[in-house]
Specification:
InterPro entries: HH_AprE-like, Poly_export, Poly_export_N. By secondary structure, the protein is an alpha+beta fold. The protein has 3 domains: about 30-115, wza like domain (wza like fold, 2-Layer Sandwich); about 120-155 and about 370-410, Roll (Outer membrane lipoprotein wza fold like); about 160-370, Orthogonal Bundle (Helix Hairpins). The protein has 7 helices and 12 strands. The strands form 4 sheets. Strands 9-8-12-10-11 form a 5-stranded mixed β-sheet, covered by helices on one side. The longest helix is centred in the last third of the chain and has 85 residues, at about 285-370. The two termini are about 65 Å apart.
C-alpha cells in the first residue's frame, strides 16, 4: 500500500524535473551550434561508434559513418534532420562474435544526438575572479557572478583606486627601503668622519621594513666600512714604511757624505803638501799627478753622495705630502658623499609623506567603493554573437546567458 504522505513530495520532484528537462530541452532546441560546442552521437546496438566531437573553427564536425558535416548555425533538431536524411544512404558493416561480417542499413530512429558541452562564457570587470566559466543550460548572470566570487572593485583600470592603492603601497615600501639604505649610508659616512650618529639610529628605528632586509642592508654598509677603512690603513701603512725607509736611507747617506767630505779634505791636503815638496824638488811630478787624481775621485764621490742625499730628502717630502693628501682627499670624498646622501634624504622624506597621504586617501576611496554595505550600483552588459557579429545587450542579474556570452560588470558609485 502506498504512503499518501509522500505523494506531494513525489509530485513536486516530478514537476521540478519536468521543468528542468523542458528548460534544457528548450535551450538545446533553440540554440544554434557554433565553434567550440561538443556534440555526442550514439548509434543503437553499436556502442563502439559512440563518439564525441567538437565543432572546429570552420564550423564542421567529424562524425562516424557520416564523415565531416557542416554544423555551425544549425539547431540540434536541424542537425539531427540533416543526419537522418543521410543515414539511409549509409551502409554499416559489423563483425559478429563468430567472425561473420554483417552489412546493414542504419535507421534514423537508431541515432541519438545530444549537446554534451557548450562553449564557455566569460565574465570580466568588477568581480573577484574574472575569467572563463563553463556554461550550463539556464545559467543566469547572477549564477555567473556567484562563480566569480561576487562583485569587487575593478583591478584592471589604471585609474582605479584599488590599482592606485596597490601601486602606491608598493612605491611606498620601495621608498622606505631606499630611505633606510641612505640613512645607513649616512651613519657609515659619519662614523668614518669620526662623528656620532645617534640621531640616525633613532630615525632608522622609526621606519618599518622587514628585519631580515634591514640586517642585509646593515651588513652591506658594515662590509663597505671595513673595506674602506682597511684600504686606508694599508695605504697609510705603506706610505709610513716608505717614510721610514727614506729616513734610514737619508741617515746612511748623511753619514757617508760626512766621511767622503773628510776623505776629500784629506786628499786636498795631501795634494797641497806634495805640490810644495815638488816645488822644492824633493817629490817627482808623478806623485803630484796621482794625488790630483785621488782628489778628483773623492770630490766626485762626495758630489754624487750629496745628489743622492738630496734626492732621498725630496722623495721623503713627496711621500709625506701624499700621506697628508690621503687624509685630506678621503675627508673631502666622505664630505661629498655625505652631502649627496643628505640631499637624497631631503628628497625622499617629502615623497614618503606624500605617499602616506595618498595611501590614506586611496584606502578610504576603496572602502567607499566596496560593494559591501555601500551605494555601489552594478552596470551589466553582455556581448553576444548574433549572425556573425557581436551585439552589446544591457542586462540584469536575472538575464539568462547563452554559450559564448561575454559578461561585463562595472560598479558605479551613486
Amino acid at each position: 500500500m502506498s504512503n499518501p504522505t509522500k505523494s506531494p513530495i513525489v509530485a513536486v520532484l516530478a514537476l521540478l524535473g519536468g521543468i528542468l528537462l523542458c528548460g534544457s530541452a528548450s535551450i538545446a532546441a533553440e540554440y544554434r551550434l557554433a565553434s567550440g560546442d561538443t556534440i555526442e552521437i550514439t548509434i543503437t546496438g553499436t556502442p563502439q561508434l559512440q563518439h564525441k566531437a567538437v565543432l572546429g573553427l570552420d564550423g564542421t564536425v567529424s562524425l562516424p559513418v557520416m564523415g565531416e558535416i557542416k554544423a555551425a548555425g544549425l539547431t540540434l533538431s536541424e542537425l539531427r534532420a540533416k543526419i537522418n536524411a543521410e543515414i539511409p544512404k549509409r551502409m554499416m558493416r559489423q563483425r559478429t562474435a563468430e567472425g561473420r561480417e554483417l552489412v546493414f542499413t542504419l535507421m534514423p530512429e537508431e541515432v541519438t544526438l545530444n549537446i554534451v558541452d557548450y562553449r564557455p562564457i566569460y565574465i570580466n570587470g568588477d568581480v573577484s575572479k574574472p575569467g572563463e566559466q563553463p556554461f550550463r543550460p539556464g545559467m543566469t548572470v547572477r549564477q555567473s557572478l556567484a562563480v566569480a566570487g561576487g562583485y569587487d572593485t575593478i583591478r584592471s583600470r589604471p585609474d582605479s583606486p584599488l590599482t592606485q592603492l596597490v601601486d602606491s603601497r608598493s612605491e611606498y615600501e620601495t621608498l622606505q627601503v631606499q630611505y633606510v639604505q641612505v640613512m645607513l649610508q649616512v651613519k657609515r659616512l659619519k662614523t668614518e668622519l669620526g662623528e656620532t650618529s645617534d640621531a640616525n639610529d633613532k630615525e632608522i628605528d622609526s621606519v618599518r621594513i622587514p628585519e631580515t632586509l634591514l640586517m642585509q642592508i646593515s651588513a652591506v654598509e658594515n662590509d663597505r666600512y671595513s673595506s674602506r677603512t682597511g684600504n686606508l690603513k694599508k695605504e697609510k701603512s705603506y706610505m709610513e714604511r716608505r717614510i721610514s725607509q727614506s729616513d734610514t736611507q737619508i741617515s746612511i747617506l748623511s753619514e757617508q757624505q760626512q766621511k767622503e767630505k773628510e776623505a776629500m779634505q784629506t786628499d786636498l791636503d795631501d795634494l797641497k803638501n806634495l805640490k810644495e815638496l815638488h816645488d822644492r824638488g824633493t817629490v817627482p811630478i808623478t806623485r803630484v799627478m796621482d794625488a790630483r787624481r785621488a782628489s778628483l775621485v773623492s770630490a766626485s764621490r762626495h758630489l754624487q753622495t750629496m745628489a743622492q742625499l738630496e734626492q732621498a730628502r725630496k722623495e721623503r717630502e713627496e711621500v709625506v705630502r701624499n700621506l697628508a693628501k690621503v687624509e685630506e682627499s678621503r675627508r673631502d670624498e666622505l664630505l661629498q658623499e655625505l652631502q649627496s646622501a643628505t640631499l637624497q634624504l631631503s628628497s625622499i622624506r617629502p615623497r614618503l609623506a606624500g605617499l602616506q597621504q595618498k595611501l590614506l586617501a586611496y584606502t578610504g576611496s576603496v572602502r567607499s567603493q566596496s560593494p559591501l554595505g555601500s551605494s555601489a550600483r552594478p552596470e551589466i552588459s553582455i556581448s553576444r554573437r548574433v549572425n556573425d557579429r557581436y551585439e552589446k545587450i544591457v542586462s540584469g542579474e536575472n538575464t539568462e546567458l547563452l554559450p559564448g556570452d561575454v559578461v561585463e560588470i562595472a560598479l558605479r558609485i551613486d
